[in-house]
Specification:
Layout lengths: L1 H8 L7 H8 L3 E3 L5 E3 L4 H9 L5 E2 L7 H4 L8 H7 L4 E3 L4 H18 L6 H17 L1 H14 L16 H8 L11 H6 L7 E5 L3 E6 L4 H11 L21 H6 L4 E6 L22 E4 L4 E3 L8 H5 L9 H12 L9 E6 L3 H9 L1 H7 L6 E6 L11 H6 L5 E5 L16 E5 L12 H5 L5 E3 L11 H9 L3 E3 L2
Helix pairs in contact: 3-5, 6-7, 8-9, 14-15, 15-16
């Protein structure tokens, strides 16, 4: 069969870097018939694949010391390898061509799901997505290859030739529970300690312990490995956090940016997956890891949690929100939606909206610079926000020139006209039945030039002078 023939062609001989480059990353070639043939990958992508083979010889990294040397690598991630270039490769590793084989199979796999002959556009879209995911997940493949390499000479591995594994998933199913444990502290020392060396308990509440890891040395790494259970996954009651993999450098990549927080429940709902506690850590299988600098808030399966669900009213972590308030504020209110001139919040999307849902909109207003000239809140949800726009708001933001409130307020302050607004929009605000009389001052002064009340209360009452200016066309108005 043609399919079997194609698979047979995928059996590769070991090649050096130059041969790999000429075979898979040559760019474009013209065939004898003049057709342009594109290579499987770029030289940069080839470098990423070689770098994610833990047995590749690159700048002194030797296969006989795969596990140990990856504890303190001189190279931190694939981008660093790309920057070095292929000339840094002394020899591709034992698993490089197996990884390439999986990439070559990708088109066949996608074609089975989205046939090329039936819809070329759909096939290309599906192939591009699958290809991007392939390269994004290579770090996980590297972790599995490290476990495979460290255990293949033991009776824990039945199939010892990597080419006996037809795809990444098959390898993952075999090695996911295999250990990769080294430590400078003993088990008895860790058992006697209330907190693992290299970390500290920063908060204890009735339902949670919060652990902080900020040391960048080996003790910090060991603490991350311990609390994550050496990345042995939920099947063994542990986690899939890459920061807890003993043989990889992801811990260093994260910790140099900021601390890791591990949240451990006490009593009640402490189980996640098939086990109550971790085989290695002995901790509740349900635990979470936060890294604010990368906005990662992960469950044991290394999936993002819904912060509003966990920290909002009635949420499982509501009792922790005051402790984490400055951390959330730093990442969600750091200029993404606010600067010296403009504040804009689109609810429920965006970081500022998450912060507002957890801590309330009023807390955001307190953090906004007094100097802004534009204030805009757009509520696209069906949930009323009831933002507090009162007399103190008007006094604080005396420099405002534009105010847009969309489905955001249920009342307006009587001194609204004290602002020197050129643009006023109170849209989709069904609960507003009257625009304050003070707004007429803006009409008298000729300050207000544009107003909109689209989607608002059909019986909305406007001040007399504003009403007349809109009717006469002196102010551009839009009612929708």
């Amino acid at each position: 069969m043609k399919f079997v023939k194609i698979l047979k062609q995928l059996v590769l001989e070991v090649k050096n870097t130059e041969e790999l480059l000429n075979t898979y990353a040559y760019g474009e070639k013209k065939s004898d018939k003049g057709k342009v043939k594109r290579s499987l990958m770029t030289p940069e992508e080839l470098m990423v694949i070689i770098a994610n083979d833990p047995t590749s010889r690159i700048k002194g990294l030797r296969p006989e010391n795969v596990v140990n040397q990856l504890y303190n690598p001189t190279i931190k991630d694939s981008q660093d390898y790309i920057d070095l270039g292929l000339e840094a490769v002394e020899k591709p590793g034992d698993y490089t061509e197996w990884i390439i084989t999986q990439l070559r199979k990708l088109a066949i796999k996608v074609d089975q799901e989205v046939p090329f002959k039936e819809n070329r556009g759909a096939f290309q879209q599906a192939y591009d997505a699958a290809r991007n995911l392939f390269f994004e997940d290579l770090f996980k493949v590297k972790q599995n290859l490290i476990r495979f390499h460290a255990n293949k000479k033991t009776d824990k591995i039945e199939k010892k030739d990597i080419n006996q594994y037809s795809n990444f998933d098959e390898l993952d199913s075999v090695v996911e529970a295999l250990p990769l444990e080294t430590a400078t502290t003993t088990k008895s020392e860790r058992k006697e300690s209330k907190v693992h060396p290299g970390s500290e308990v920063v908060l204890q509440t009735p339902n949670w312990d919060v652990i902080k890891i900020e040391r960048q040395d080996e003790l910090g790494k060991e603490a991350a490995c311990f609390y994550g259970g050496n990345q042995l996954k939920s099947v063994r009651g542990e986690t899939n956090w890459c920061t807890s993999a003993p043989g990889l450098s992801y811990f260093q990549n994260y910790i140099r940016k900021g601390p890791l927080f591990v949240l451990i429940p006490k009593g009640g709902n402490t189980k996640f997956g098939p086990k109550d506690v971790g085989d290695v850590s002995g901790l509740p299988s349900r635990r979470y890891q936060f890294h604010f600098e990368d906005q990662q808030f992960m469950d044991p399966d290394d999936r993002q949690i819904d912060l509003v669900e966990f920290f909002g009213p009635g949420g499982d972590m509501e009792e922790l929100k005051e402790y984490f308030k400055p951390y959330f504020g730093k990442i969600f209110l750091k200029g993404e939606n606010t600067n010296n001139k403009t504040f804009k919040l689109e609810y429920p999307s965006g970081g500022a909206s998450k912060y507002a849902a957890i801590y309330g909109l009023d807390t955001i207003i307190d953090s906004i610079p007094d100097s802004i000239t534009t204030f805009e809140v757009i509520n696209k949800s069906n949930t009323p926000l009831n933002l507090k726009i009162d007399e103190d708001f008007v006094k604080k933001f005396s420099n405002l020139k534009a105010l847009h409130l969309h489905n955001a307020v249920s009342s307006l302050p009587s001194n609204l006209g004290d602002l020197n607004l050129k643009f006023l929009a109170v849209t989709n605000s069904k609960d507003i039945d009257e625009i304050p009389q003070s707004v007429d001052r803006l009409v008298e002064d000729g300050t207000l030039t544009l107003a909109s009340f689209a989607g608002s209360n059909p019986n909305l009452k406007l001040p007399e002078k504003l009403q007349k200016a809109l009717e006469d066309g002196d102010i551009i108005g839009y009612f929708g």
